[in-house]
Amino acid sequence: MKKLKVLALALVCAVFSPAKADEGMWLLQLMQEQNLADRMKAQGLKMDIMDIYNPDQITLKDAVGIFGRGCTGEIISPNGLILTNHHCGYDAIQQHSSVEHDYLTDGFWAKSYQEELPTPGLTFKFVDRIVDVTEKVNEDIRKGKVTEAESFGSKYLKKLAADELKKSDLKGKPGISTQALPFYEGNKFYLFFIKTYSDVRMVAAPPSSIGKFGGETDNWMWPRHTGDFSMFRIYADKDGNPAEYSAENVPLKVKKHLTISLKGLQEGDYAMIMGFPGSTSRYLTESEVRLRMEGINVPRITVREERQNILRKEMAASDKVRIQYASKFAGSSNYWKKYISMNKAIVDNKVLETKAEQEAKFAAFAKEKQNADYAAVVGKIDEYVKRVTPLRTQLTYFTETFRSGIEFTLTSKMEALQDLATALQKNKKKDVEKAIATLKEAYADIHNKDYDHEVDRKVAKVLLPLYAEKVPAEALPDFYQTVKNTFKGDYNAYVDTLYNNSIFANEKNFNAFIENPTVEAINKDLSAEYAAAVSKKYKELAASCPNITFHESGLVDAKLLNSADVLLSDASSVIVEAMMLDKPVVTYCNTMPGAHLLNVTETDAVEGAIEKAISRPAELMERMRAYVHKHEAHLDGESSSRVLDAVNNYIWYFQGKTRAKPWNLVRKFKLRWRVGYPLMATLRLW
After folding, report:
1. What confidence score (pLDDT) does residue 655 get?
2. Cα–Cα dist 120/595, whole Å
3. What CA–CA distance (Å, rounded) separates 479 from 494?
4. What is the pLDDT of residues 201-223, one digit of tens each?
5. How far apart are CA 172 and CA 193, in angstroms?
6. String of DSSP letters for 105-137
7. pTM, whole model, 2 decimals?
8. pLDDT at res. 661
């Protein structure tokens, strides 16, 4: 069955009463036809059902939105004040924190609008309306414009959303985008009109002793005793429209806000939750659930637990490290606890046994109906799962170890090191300078403000032998042979040499190398060997996965990019090329993220970011196109023609008429004189 992560403004209802409870989740636009109003009234709802959701009126939907990458936020003042979870605002709190201003530990509270902190990249989204487009999709299927299978695809849904926006009264409105999504396995299709505000500022956060009380021990548990909240505010232009950050922006005057009662709860009070749930896996087969438990959850639990044990100890010993790793640790431990709880819940609730019973009933149904396709489908899924489980397990261990666990790696810039070696061999000075400039960026990427070399050294000493223990020998990157042969299997000695002596280990080593780069130094460098081996093994594992084609970066051309809907990368020049072809880009741990990219720092967030990119939200596309226009204004495909015309123009009109360049020494003096460079310093150059 197709699994879908959906944008769904949903209602979860529960009555706090030991005598009765009716729990469930409903899409707001279906409350009437599902007769939800009567059930809610019977349980104590006093407000009119139409005051919860009505596409043509101001209702509760206008006070609830999407905070950041998927959390729910509530508007609690007429001036755009947002209340959300502490863990939802944690990245922003960490972003603003330092040893001098430790908002993570001490908390933060702006006492005026002027003290509220701009948070680049943070957005807040309102669902303006939800439209049923099921009949439109079915009509397209009947007319042969799209197949039933294609109706689930991003290409069709993206076009449908764009076409419907063009016909809408919201066309051209600032911040408005549309997203079409299938529900109930394609039996229903809904179009969401979304308004996105991109100037969101931090207002308040409790100290971690309140906001993270209980830590991961209480995470995903109930009841919780945490003051899990933080506050932000939406800003807009003077007309109330979404706008990028500007000092001229003002707090948004919202249509609707929630009022807060200080009376407290009484036994039996009616309660409900409005928000944006993530995804469902309820349609997985028994074998697919086992794959989730054993091939995904167990490796993630195992690797993260070992890494977190180290980070926890190091963070407790240093305020600097604590602030550097706070967001990384929170993101890792959040999902670590989720995977533990998920596996426990599957066992406690006998999910595997229930799935087996359901499949037995389905097999009997298929036999009764004499439907060969139905009879064979579960077996085919089981066969596929059996085939991919070892690979999925290895890939999860690999990703958790080398892409999410150990941070000291040159993998994303290996090409630059190879280019440098080639340039040195061919004695091409300009190419050498270009490669060194890229390697300087790589060094800065590794040794960024949230990285500690000694902490990462300790992580590597634990994760490298753990990976070797958990996967077969053929899944080991080639550098493990160096550990075995050169270091006699001593991982500590290997890691110490790697972290002490390699080119990228520290500023001293790096500067010494770039002052006198040699091919021999590159070939002998452990960090280069390590990065090349990790990259090679990743390609091998990825190429073994069904439905994945691995392309070397040198083969990425316009034709290949044009065939894609989205580019997923870490750091590469191909990012700009993709954006020039109007393709949204998702980046993983990009060290220069911006509003034109969807950057994530956790592997678990990649899927959601890709699905968001596929929907091509208007505000993202606008920022992306503005970025592209700034770097390359001509996207008409005529750049080569313009260059040739310029050459011809020079040949015909200027050849023989240009003056020769002045003597090199004179030029150097002139340039230095113009920029105010000291004359004596210039003379010392010769």
Report:
1. 59
2. 8
3. 10
4. 999 999 999 998 887 667 777 78
5. 12
6. HH-EE-SSGGGPEE-TT--EEEEEEEEE-HHHH
7. 0.70
8. 56
What's the distance, Cα to Cα, between the start and end of the chain in Å?
Answer: 73
Yes or no: say if 378 and 359 are a contact pair by the CB < 8 Å rule: yes
Q: Which tokens in the block code for residue 440? A: 């300087």
CA pseudo-torsion sign 538, 540, 543, 549: positive
Dihedral of alpha carbons 34, 37, 41, 46, sign = positive
Q: Is the dihedral of CA 69, 56, 269, 23 positive or negative?
A: negative
Digit-coded pLDDT (tens) for 650-670: 676 665 555 655 556 555 555
Query: Cα(256)–Cα(74) distance, rounded to whole angstroms?
Result: 10
Give CA–CA dist 205/230, Å, rounded.
5
Exposure string of 439-461, with b = 16+ CB inside 10 Å and e = fewer, is beebbebbbeebbbeebbbbbbb
**Kind and range of the H or E run holding 197:** strand 188-197
Rounded to whole angstroms, the Cα distance separating 537 from 477 reads: 5
The verdict on whether omega for the bond into residue 517 sits within 30 degrees of 0, i.e. cis, is no
Q: What was the pLDDT predicted at 6?
A: 37
User: Residue 629 corresponds to which amino acid?
Assistant: H
| Residues 467, 491 contacting (CB under 8 angstroms) | no
Average pLDDT over residues 62-84: 93
Query: Percentage of the chain surpassing pLDDT 70?
Result: 86
Give the span between the Cα atoms of 8 and 289, in whole angstroms. Answer: 24
Output the CA angle 179-95-336, nearest 5 degrees: 70
Strands 598-600 and 585-588: parallel
Confidence of residue 232 (pLDDT cuts 50, 70, 90): very high
Q: Name the phi and psi angles at 182, rounded to 5.
A: -85, 145
User: Hey, what's the torsion of the CAs at 243, 245, 250, 256, to 10 degrees?
Assistant: 60
Q: How far is CA 578 from CA 416, 563, 609, in A?
A: 20, 11, 16
* Predicted local distance difference test score (pLDDT) of residue 16: 39
Residue 359 CA from chain centroid, whole number: 35
Q: What is the average pLDDT score of the chain?
A: 85
Q: Check pLDDT > 70 for residue 549.
A: no
Q: Which two tokens stand for residue 410?
A: 């040159």
Tokens 């190879």 appear where? 418
Q: Which two tokens stand for residue 471?
A: 């996967």
- Inter-residue contact 217 to 95 (CB < 8 Å): no
Give residue-wise pLDDT tens across range 345-364: 999 999 999 999 999 999 99
Residue 666: predicted pLDDT? 59
pLDDT-based confidence at residue 548 (cuts at 50, 70, 90): low
Amino acid in the structure at residue 238: K
Any idea which of 76-90, 389-403, 597-611, 659-673 has the lowest mean pLDDT? 659-673
Q: What is the rounded CA–CA span in Å between residue 559 and residue 279?
A: 33
Q: Using the CB atoms, write b or e for 577-609: b if 16+ within 10 Å.
A: bbbbeebbbbbbbbbeeebbbbbbbbbebbebb
Residue with tokens 């994945």: 548
Return phi, psi of residue 52, to 5°: -85, -50
Q: What's the residue count for the chain?
A: 686
Number of Cα atoms under 13 Å in the Cβ half of residue 340: 17
Label residue 168 by pLDDT band (50, 70, 90). very high
Query: CA 205, 104, 68, 111 torsion: positive or negative?
Result: positive
CA-to-CA distance for 265 and 71, rounded, in angstroms?
A: 25
Residue 10 backbone phi and psi in degrees, to 5:
-120, 165
The partner residues of 5 in beta bridges, in order of sequence, read: 279
CA angle, residues 115, 121, 122, in degrees to nearest 5: 65
pLDDT at 9 over 80: no
Tell me the percentage of the chain whose pLDDT exceeds 90. Answer: 52
12 CB-near residues (< 8 Å, 6+ apart): 23, 24, 25, 272, 273, 274, 275, 277
